[in-house]
Amino acid sequence: MQPKTHGLPTREQILEFIQTSDKVVGKREIAKAFGLKGQEKIALKKRLKDMAEEGLIDGKKTAYHRMGGVPKVTVLRVMDIEDGEPFAIPDSWQPDDATPPPRLRVIEGKKGKGRHPALKVGDRILARTEEAGRGWKAHVMKKLPARTDGLMGVVEIDRSGKGWLAPVDKRVRNSSPISDLGGAEEGQLVLAEPAGRSPRAGVKVVEVLGDPLAPKSFSLIAIAKHGIPHVFPDGAIAEAKRAAKLPLSEDKREDLRHLPIVAIDPADARDHDDAIWAEPDGEGGYRALVAIADVSFYVRPGGELDREARKRGNSVYFPDRVVPMLPEVLSADVCSLRQDEDRAAMACHLRISSEGKVTKWRFTRAIVRIAHNVAYEDAQAAIDAGDAPEHLQHLWSAWKLLFDARNRRDPLELELPERQVRLDDEGKIAEIAVRERLDAHRVVEDFMIAANVAAAKALESKTAPVVYRVHEPPSREKLVALKEYLATFGRSMALGQVITPGLFNRMLKDVTDESEKAQVMEAVLRTQTQAYYGPQNAGHFGLALGSYAHFTSPIRRYADLLVHRALVDAFGLEQPRPAGDLPPGSGLSDRDREDLAKVSDAISQAERRAMEAERDTIDRYVAAWLSGRVGETFDTRITGVQPFGFFATIEGLGGDGLVPISTLGDEYFGYDEAAQALVGSDSGTRYAPGDRLKLRLGEANALTGALKFELPDKEGRIEPRGERPEKRSRQGRTGQGKRGRPANIRHQGRGKQKR
């Protein structure tokens, strides 16, 4: 086919020419076919580069063709997540020049109720590729094990002088040879990438991060490992600065600056989403206000700032830093409800009856001036001392009504201690302790729950879109497993009854033995489903609520921002159009409405990513804190049992560590699958979740966060279980826990000390 010569060809014309040509096609052939000269050739070069970036062609200058070098079935690596959709590139892409690799939209197989299995940035998949309009897509066939691509690790030099990358991810077992140190020295923390197509080519260092045990390193490791976006694009920062200059107009805003509203937060909080106020209504109840930062006024749908916030999904909190969802000019300044400063707020007005029920609610946009930013501990101390100001006393009195109503509702009550890492001024670990749970925490929590319920019900009353916070009841499979587990304790559980949170609460109250109670609590926790965001309401089982949405933290959660936008639309709370080039509306965009399920999936995945990153980082801090105490004996509690050993945590500190079955002595230990226990064949010695033991710390690896424990002797148990283990010692033994370490079970780490 001979193209017509009428100037720069369109993408479609170029693709058609490449597809129908009977000879090799390069830039020269395209220019000649379309009669291009001078500046037109320069424009063609740019268009071809753009097409390569879009994945329409493979980008080789001498022989363009559609997606060259990408087989129909190939290995891809996920590089980005946009609105819940993963995008990937060929895993071993090595172009002849600087042209970026083709980018494929990944289609995931559905899994239960329309939700998809979560893929994260960095995941490797085997996929089937196909052309889709102007781009390409890939269908997931299966997820593949992790490789060292983009891996963070520590440089080690062997005796021959060869460099090795020791991984900081405890799931990656082997070190990789380094072909190019890139100026890195032994002991330094680095980022690396593959040095060639074959894994045997090793890796090359692309960035030197420095001391792996420096205070900043633990959070950096988590950020890199989980692919958390932590650098804002210039466009998003510029838009945030423009938004921060928006005038706070009183037009269509309720003036609440006369109310003594207080924000109660952690002492080190940098962003303040919420503030509360209450006063008696003269009828035994209270009028209350929950004021939430009006983030939707500043972050408009469709802008680059909104796209970046949606991509992040939430802020991520580490002991040494925060990776915010919004640039600091908004998150820590203009949106944050600071004392004695006028701020834009979304106000939730509540009427609380003398029985603690929320009988009325309304939502407005408001101007507030926070009377006090107070720490939880300080607010509690003032209440306990009896010298708290009247507005704090009113809050506590109103909360007692809410708390009584909560107790009647009987939500799930599990004692789940939260570890807190405190750093000194130099960023070094000062203390690791369990965070104290005060009434002040419960006051704020119950006011927030009331506002979240009100937001969900208010939107339902307008048949408006809602991003629900969904916590489904336990599945029947998990309930059957719990029933079988309880039977090993001689306890019964009827599956024919309605399963409620109160059922689990009563079950735990009936257990008087503390060791057994810890085991049952662990089992109940494993029975629970994971909460998620979605546009279809399935209630919140754990809170015993029929409708629940997240409304109270829009600075740090994108789900809350979407709820705010829905309220703006449903109740006519739009503000005058802003000046300048910011997107005009602050309600839901058409894209939000059409893609609400997809966006909900994306922010649910981002939440899980943040939780894993935060947990990994705490584990590394705990391992670093314990690294100088290897050889000491600690009081521990078993948290999980597997055929190859059991995991235990130090009481009051945390940090799960493995006790391999090979260290339990010469006796044969069988795995009782129903009871989730290891049972000695001769003595009947039993290791089950919840058991308390004295264990010696054998290894603490700060880089991976891995701990390893050992029995100090064969009589390491603190609380003997009497005759009960003997009665159950023969039940369900599978023979999987053979003497010695299984060949496929290895524990990574260096500096192992045996005592």
TrEMBL record:
It is found in: Cytoplasm. The keyword Cytoplasm applies. SMART domains: RNB, S1. Residues 631-712 form the S1 motif domain. It comes from the Bacteria. Its main location: cytoplasm. It catalyses: Exonucleolytic cleavage in the 3'- to 5'-direction to yield nucleoside 5'-phosphates. Its EC number is 3.1.13.1. Belongs to the RNR ribonuclease family. RNase R subfamily. 3'-5' exoribonuclease that releases 5'-nucleoside monophosphates and is involved in maturation of structured RNAs. This is Ribonuclease R. The gene is rnr.
